[in-house]
Design a protein that fits this description.
single chain, alpha+beta, Alpha-Beta Plaits, 4-stranded antiparallel beta sheet, 25% strand
């Protein structure tokens, strides 16, 4: 399954290194122009991903996770990202 994970980190000066480390444990790809967006491939559910990541956030932060389904997404991304997504759906 492929998920889009996006977040807003709202606490100025907080070190989010552990969040980024947790995200890097997934099979992932990122677009350099979308700083807070990660595409991840995992057999976990959105709820399981949330439980894994939430410990690295503050109460003021926002996190959204949604599963991509074949044919139910559209956008303007680099061709390598489209190929990565397509190979995993």
């Amino acid at each position: 399954m492929v998920y889009l994970i996006t977040y807003d980190l709202n606490k100025p000066g907080k070190d989010y290194t552990t969040l980024y480390g947790a995200l890097r444990k997934y099979n992932y790809i990122r677009d350099n122009g979308l700083d807070s967006v990660w595409f991840v491939s995992t057999s976990w559910t959105a709820s399981q991903i949330y439980e894994h990541l939430r410990h690295h956030l503050d109460a003021s932060d926002k996190l959204f996770i949604t599963q991509l389904n074949r044919g139910s997404y559209f956008g303007w991304l680099h061709k390598d990202i489209w190929a990565w997504i397509g190979a995993r759906l």
